[in-house]
Request: fold
Amino acid sequence: MSRRRGFTLVELLVVIGIITILIAVLLPVLMKVREHGYRTVCLSNVRQLAVAWTTYASEHNGMLVHTTRSPWVRDDMATLEERIRNGSLFPYLHEMKVYRCPNDPRAEYQYLWSYSINHFVYGITGGWSGGMLAGPQHAGELVRPAETIVFIEDARWGSGEVTISVNLGPPLSWATPVSYWHGGSTASFADGHAEFLKWTDARTLEVWKSGNHNVLQGDNADLVRLTNLLNVR
Reply:
């Protein structure tokens, strides 16, 4: 009679050890792959928003989406879903999911959008320490569309935000915290392309924690870069 030999305890422990090592090696790789997938979706979202923004202008004699005449999302509706569906860009998008990054960790706050429009291309006149700034009203007024952000992820806590901006100073300061969950932010530009802006200063990822809308960081390279990409003048 032949005897069937099973695994010994030592052999089982060796197999378990090998599996544990493989998991430890592969898990970071899998996490990076998942994050890359989320980032790709986010880039697609902001690009679609920029295309909708451009299409709106082309169908309205070059006039840009405007905070009062044609808000991209509404702030006078009862629910956040109504605010999106009744915004001027939704007819060109038709999907709620375009307004949200799948990696946005603020789901418990029931955000329906992860992105904000650039304050300075939204027809807003605002009082800033650097002076009164009036945004362009017409697409023809954009002097460097390939270097002007239209939509970008923000990281404010509370109800959905509409615009994102910086205080031009001097000194420069954050007016709005940018997203931290990618280690950077996806952004789309007035010429229709989208980029991932990787943050290089650790302080950038901490701005949202302060709850302060005027964080002075004039020596922050990320803030300097963002200022140049947001300010159309």
In short: The longest helix spans residues 9-59. The first strand starts at residue 115 and ends at 118.
